Each structure stands twice: as structure tokens, then as C-alpha cells.
Amino acid sequence: MTQNVQVPEHLKQHTIWQDGHLPEPCTVVIFGATGDLAQRKIYPTLAHLMLNHPTPEGFCIVAFARRPFDDEKWRAQVLTSIEKYMPEDDKLDDAEKKTFASRLFYCQSNFDDREGYQKLSDLLDKLDSEQNTSGNRLFYLATPPDTDSEIIYHLGGAGLARPSRDNGNGDTSWTRIIIEKPFGHDLASAQKLNRDLGRVFRENQIFRIDHYMGKETVQNIIAFRFANGIFEPLWNQKYIDHVQIVVAESLGVESRAEFYEHAGAIRDIVQNHVMQLLSLVAMEPPAAFDAEAIRDEKLKLIRAIPIFTTEQVKENVVRGQYIAGTADGKPVVGYKEEQGVSPTSTTETYVALKLSIENWRWADVPFYVRTGKHLPKRSTEVTIQFKRVPHQLYKVGETRGLEPNRLTIRIQPDEGITLKIGAKVPGAAQQLATVDMGFSYNSAFGVQSPEAYERLIADCMLGDSTLFIRRDEIEASWSIIDSITKVWADLPPETVRPYAAGSWGPQEADTLIEEDGRHWDNP
What does DSSP assign to residue 25? Predict the structure, then answer.
């Protein structure tokens, strides 16, 4: 049984500003402004924010990049990007393009050039005067991770990290910085990055962005758990058998081989996306619905996950690497044949692991995690499997094929929630079957969900850090990942299990869960 809701032809525009609270005027400064992330995500997001939601007149975008552009050349490139990457029903007309382009400015410099940051400071002061941006600055580091510390150092050296001027309303202006993942490569590098940030910015100025946290369905995990009286009483070891989290990608490494060779699936996905999903699904109720209370509970949850021992890594973690296979009906090469990948690479493109949470709520409840590239479909889901009834009244033949109750939260691509229940098949025979009760966010509300980057950039402009990751969260999750990767470093290459592209992973991953008498719930 599924929810019978007609999908409207045109979804209503969502409201991005909380309770009608508009952001203050500001300048968004983008480092790495000519890069792929900026062109694909940031510019279309800022264009949508500016032209589809009320924004202050004093709103400007400044590029800080190496290429020898001027304002006009950069404006032309940005307009080309948003024309290419904005959804078809969100394209700008000529007047809107002209309005958006008039807010774009360019500052050419190398990241290690001290004079370039002084030039940036002068430009920002000029925009404060001419465009009424009120001294509020949002620095967005859409740059390779190895440049972050250098940029942070020079921002501090140029005096750009500290708000110091009156914004015209008798208040001090604000300065914030957005840092893209990955937040380090391991615990030591994450701690160094945090120290570098802490020398220049205060923690309440730092917004560590994980785009998964901007997805509407991820945010709805909190609402689902704590706004519904029928589920929270069941959300514990007494009623839940186990939890599964899958982050499946249908594509291979594409053009990211250089990055992926140093990261692998566990650093690219598990350390951030999976840990954030896990913490929201399993955390205790926060004392209040505010940033620090929610992040306190997420941290407590992550700290309740035991560090893996060497034997636990060998028994409870499977790493794999795709070999040649078929994806979307087309033959694809194996990971080692991808351009930029070493033919002797042991980098994992797949991880399956079983972990536990040592607290009263989740004692003896296993959490199974899978993520990988070149899997059969792109999907992110969280599945809560409830325990079977303590005594089955029906005969074995009448319940053949009946599945346990499962609650599945679909993060992407078809955002929604499904609950599997047992029901009697019509007729005289006592035959039971599993049916679905569910809904889709778009069809249920008729409202367009905001893009993840739109939600997060808007929250940063408002100073709301609820959906961003705190320093201690990052370091706690890296401690868990390090305990796995340090063991992997000493294991022979054959422990990286091959799996055909287009499959659900190596056989060892199936064995991991089947040994516990369970099976994967494939999307």
C-alpha cells in the first residue's frame, strides 16, 4: 500500500529564509572560483538564491583566483556556467542574467601572494562603500585541501578574519568561513587544519560543510524521530534488530582518480557522509533545537562507537575494488585501468563494515554500512529493521516470504520514507505478504526541496551552524577511521576484494552480514 498522492505539475517554490528572517548584506568571496565545484554548484546556487528568494540589495560575489581575468571576462564565464548547470526550469532570462552579473567582481592573485590579500581587502572595502555590503564577509574555500592552511594564514595576516567595523546599524559586522570536505586525510592532519583555523578564526565563525547535511531528507531524520510519538519509543535495542546504511554510486571515479587514489571510499564517504547520517539516526534527543545542543548529541554518539582493534578490522570490515564489468548496460573498465590510477593500486572503491554503539539505547544492535562506486544504482538509504514478533501465530507456510518490519529513509534520489508491514492477502486462505506504506516528499507536500548547497549557504549567511560540523565531531570520527586504515596499511594487497562493476560488491560483504543471520536490503 502506498500513499495515493498526485504529483503536481509544478512544485511550489520553497521558502529558504527561516521564519521570514532575511540575511544581512554581505560579500561572498570564493577561493578557487574557476574550479569545477564553483561552476557546477556554487554559482547556480548563488544565482538561484539571489533571484528566487529575497536577498539584500547589498549582496556581492567576489572571485579570488589565479587566472588573469578581469570583471567582464569572469562574468561571462559565470553566466556560461549557470546556463549549463542550472536546471531547465530555473534558467535566468536576459534581465536576470544582467542583474546577477552586475554583482560579480574579480580579484586576481595567487593563493601565496600576500599582496593579493591586501588587494582583496581594498576591493572589499570599496564594495562596502559602493554596494552597501556592510562589512559582512563570507569566505568560501572551494579549493584543493592542500591550499586551505595557506589561504587561512594569509586571511589572518591581512586582517580579513576579524570583523571590526560598524555595519551602519550600530552593530559589528561579521566574518565567516566555509571549509569544504575532506577535513584532513587522517586524525593528525584534521587536528592540524583545526589548529590552523583556530589561530585565525573563532569556532563560531567556522562552517565545515558536508553537502549531505543540506539534503531535506537528512534534516527530516530529526523531525521524523522527535516529532512522532509512535516511533521514538521503539527507537532502541528492545525493538530494533539492526540498522543498515547504504551510500551507493553508479559511476566510477570519472575524473577524480588523482584525489581518489589518496582518499578511497572510507575517507571520501564513510568518515563524513556516513558518520553524519549515523549520528542523526542514533543520537539521543537534544536538550533544545539549536546548533550546539544537536551537535553535542552527535558528538556523544560518535564517541560511543568503539575504536576498532586489529582483529575487529579483519572480521568486521570488508574493502573492495571494482574490476571490469557492466554499468547501465555498457561495458566499463576496472579501477586499475582508469586514467591516473596505479596498476598496483590497493585503494578501496568499496567498503562494508559492521560497527556497534556502546550505550544503553543501542546495546547489541549492529549497524551495517556499505558504500561503493560502480554499484547497480545511485542510492542513499537508511533502513531500520525491527525485531520479529515474539510468537508467530501463523503457520510457516502462511508466512513464507514475509519480511520483518522495515523502515527505510530514502535520502536520494527519490526522497521519501517507506514502512514495510505484514498484511493478509485477500481471500479465504490465511496467507500473509509484505506491503509498503510510504510517501515521497515532493508528492506529499507539493513543494520543491531546496538544493543541498542552497540550504547550507543560506544558513551560513544567517549564522546558523546547526547543519555544519564542529571541530570535535571531525576529530572523533577520524579516530574511528584511523583505527581501520592503520590496520589496512599492514595487510596484504589480496585483502582488497575484487567485485565486478555493476554488482553490489564482493562476496565477502554478503558473508559479513549473512554470518549474523541477516541479509542486505538492496535499494
Answer: P
